[in-house]
Amino acid sequence: MQNNSQNIQIIDIDYYIDSNRPIIRIYGKDDAGKSICCLVPGFEPYFFAQADNPAELCNYLTDAFDCIQKADIVEKFLPIGYQTKKVPIVKITVTLPTDVRDIRDQIRDLPGVNEIFEADVLFHNRFLIDKNLHPLKWITITPAPAEKELHPTNIICEEIITAEKVEEIDKIAHAPFKYLAWDIECLPDNGALPTPDKSPIILMSIAFSPEYKGMNTLVLASKKIDGVDKETECYDNENDMINAFFSTVREYDPDVLTGFNTDGFDTKYVVDRCKKINTESGTPVINFKIGRDNRDLNFRVFGATTSVSISGRIVADVLPLIREGFKLKRYKLENVAKELIGKEKLDVPPQEMEAYWNDPSKIHTFIEYSRRDSELALELLLKLQLLDKYLALAQVSGRPLQDVINGGQTNLVEQLLMSRFREIDRLMAMKPNDEIVEERERESNVVGADVLDPKKGLHCNTVVEDYKSLYPTIMMARNLCYTTVIIDKTTPKESMIISPSDGHFIKPEIFKGIIPSILEGLLDKRVATKKMMKNARDENEKRVLDATQLALKILLNSFYGYSGYIRARLFSLEVANSVTSYGRENIRNTQNTINNEIVTLTIRDNQALTPNESDGTQPNDIIVLLTPIYGDTDSIFIHCTDINGNEFEEEEFTLDMSALVGKKIAEVVTSKLPEPMELQYEATAKRILLVAKKRYAMWQFEQAKDGWIQKIKVKGLETVRRDWCNLTSKTLNIILEAILKEGDVDKCITYVQDVIAKIRKINDTRDEAFIAELTLSKTLSRPPSSYKNKQPHLTVVEKIRERGGQVPITGERIPFLITTVGSGYVEQAEDPAYVIEHNIPIDTNYYIQKQIIPPALRLLETFGVKRTTLEINQNQKGLFDFGKQEKEEQSPKKKNSEPAPIDKQPSTDNNDKGTKRQKSLFEY
DNA sequence: ATTGTGGCCTAC
DNA sequence: TCAGGTAGGCCACAAT
């Protein structure tokens, strides 16, 4: 190896033009933190065309267009369908990447040209695919000899290397990245959202990691302010401040730029403001070129969303990352910081900003407020490790990090498919145009999974089993792929796999599909990564590996969704429907196997035996009757009872026994399935309350290395829904705890009655903390004008607009309370801040009748509890200890962790903490 | 009273 | 919200 070769981690990739040829530019960082730009000349853009007469097309093309370097006939498979013969295709190599689109448009409609392929693959992605390189992985660069060196003048990295050769190498740890978070403050328009044509930017703040010239933060002000500290710089006016901001960014040279809602607000605001100032001055007084190629930042605006990118750097707005990663009721910086890192945002209300700015005694508070916002954004990104997953997805998929952050799963899947298609000489289809999308939309009819009817009510001792990666394993087991779908009607039946939805695929012995092969690779890699994780001693490495295995899991599960996605390059209803039809068949088969074949298991000598294995009954045998009581898509819940279908007595059926049963069922079912499909034992529910499809709660015990980990798991019920108020969630949590752990319905009734009593008094007490518990929220999911029906959150948006406040934008969650003002729930919705400020009465009846009683009753009616019982006004008994809910704990040596089945609990109280007699749960 | 729809959010 | 898929519960309200 040459000793002047250099290793870098790829951060970004693009190209530039030098002497009318494209040069690939790889931006990266070495392990000492030096920013390096690697130039790779010699890669040429190309695409493909299928023609009636390929030779004729070749001749025509080379004669007609100067920018076409070559037109050759190559042999390729077409994108969809199992094929045995390649077809002749014209490969058109052009001079510049932009020529691809030009030539494509000019030849598309020529007579004799049937179809164009791969003309919409961006040049830098083409390079990554063809060279088998992956962003965020490390490469070693062999420098070109001096005479071949390129000397671009605009690149502002610390070092520029012209590469002779680049090769990927193995290295786990990331390079030391530099992060910069920023934020702007503008003078609002009378408390409403500021607009760039009217409102100036007055403060800009920055937070650095690692520090910059000894500073962790820096606030720039657009006027002279007395008595500021050394991390605040004052300028004479707005342009000077903005220019200082951009030159600070250039000088610090961050790899990652972040902020809170910077893509959605700040970036566009600053750019618009700069343009306005530049236009008004007649000369460009502001230089906002902050790319590592010394160019402007790039915008792409799609309707309400803008995505920002800066060449050579990564733009990562934390707001969308947090939206995706955390389920919160609101996503204002204030809420997010408090919920996720326990930090307070400083408070300067928009209406008062002007006053703060103009008041010398308050302006320092304003400066600190601004500084805090950048600090919080940076802290969120780093502490929550928001980028980890995306770095790993870029590495595994081969797509540039900025695409991974801004885009969806489509890009990732397509990059993987394209790489593998290229290896076997298969063409990739172009992205569908609007016409094709509409057609697919009309035809699209994908049937999904089965949800088994739940046996509603309370059950003890239920084992939960699920299929490991069901859809990916189905695709592997049945060779489901675009490349295996039968298009030749003469294919003999014995060569085909026919799915329950009547999809036809070639057998893997004849040709193994690309998707199954990709999935197999991802699965193997995931197993290997998890193994490395176990052995890793370095915490940092462990973190990276954990992100990698998560990324692999995400990719594994993306292929099914992609196959039925109407905007996909490859779209196949036959594939999508075959996957789900096998899934439905599978869950039914599982249910039947348990019902009709296994039926019972015998527990003997710490083993679970099937009827075949047990060979009669022995004295200490415990016979367990298995009844599937619920299942959704890839899971099945099996109730374990005695032979007569009654719940076991306390201690008769232990958790350890349930694990034996669960594992035995998994083993028997798995043995009948094709590889690599696998049913696995997940956990045991000591008690489970099945309310409806997709709605249940259970007291779950999961087997760990040293004992059982217990928790209450709630699915689909109001507790986990963000469109119900906190009071509902808390009330239901108490009820669930009482039912599942203590079997105490009395307690539930008293509790609900007390909650109702407290609601009744809220307009007298005006307890603000309690009012906050009544706040509902809903997402404003589209522009207000496009709603067909009125909605409560729309009412609130309208009211805020009329009052001249900051109007929420599409995609925001809107909090509201139901007041007595107006008629009907929709009209009665009001902004909580306004309710407090103007002392608007709360509609107590709504909360009692709509928010508390129906959800409580849904849980309690199985025990015979009636609406009238809950409504009885029992003058306040006062046991309001909200918020003492158990999360997750190691089960303490069986102490009280195995109460008797509820319907058999003795009528005398054996519970050490209560004294009053409990009614049986079925006495109501 | 029952049925249909628009809307929201969740399970998987 | 150009950002993978379908199933499904429940609310409010309108139509029957």
Keywords:
six-stranded mixed sheet, ten-stranded antiparallel sheet, Nucleotidyltransferase, domain 5, 4 domains, Palm domain of DNA polymerase, DNA Polymerase, Chain A, domain 1, DNA-dir_DNA_pol_B_CS, 23% strand, DNA_pol_type-B, DNA-binding, alpha+beta, 29 helices, 32 strands, nucleotide binding, 924 residues, single chain
Share of residues in strands:
15-25%
- Within CATH, the superfamily of the largest domain carries the name B family DNA polymerase, palm domain
Distinct helical segment count:
29
Termini distance? 82 Å
Number of strands: 32
What do the pLDDT scores average to? Answer: 92
Helix content: 25-40%
Low-confidence spans: 875-924
* Named CATH topology of the largest domain: Palm domain of DNA polymerase
What is the name of the CATH architecture of the largest domain? Alpha-Beta Complex
Main structural class: alpha+beta
Q: What do you see in this structure?
A:
Keywords: DNA replication, DNA-binding, DNA-directed DNA polymerase, Nucleotidyltransferase, Plasmid, Transferase. GO terms for molecular function: DNA binding; DNA-directed DNA polymerase activity; nucleotide binding. It is an enzyme of class 2 (transferase). Residues 400-861 form the DNA-directed DNA polymerase family B multifunctional domain. Residues 880-924 are annotated as: Disordered. The structure is a single chain. Strands 18, 19, 22, 23, 24, 25, 26, 27, 28 and 32 form a 10-stranded antiparallel β-sheet that branches. A 6-stranded mixed β-sheet has the order 13-12-11-10-14-17. 39% of the residues are buried. The chain has 29 helices and 32 strands. Helix 10 crosses helix 16 (539-556). It is of the alpha+beta class and 924 residues long. The termini are far apart. It folds into 4 domains: 6-169, DNA Polymerase, Chain A, domain 1, CATH 3.30.342; 179-386, Nucleotidyltransferase, domain 5; 432-512 and 558-716, B family DNA polymerase, palm domain (Palm domain of DNA polymerase, Alpha-Beta Complex); 726-904, Topoisomerase I, Chain A, domain 4, CATH 1.10.132. The longest helix has 26 residues, at 573-598. The chain is globular, with a radius of gyration of 32 Å.
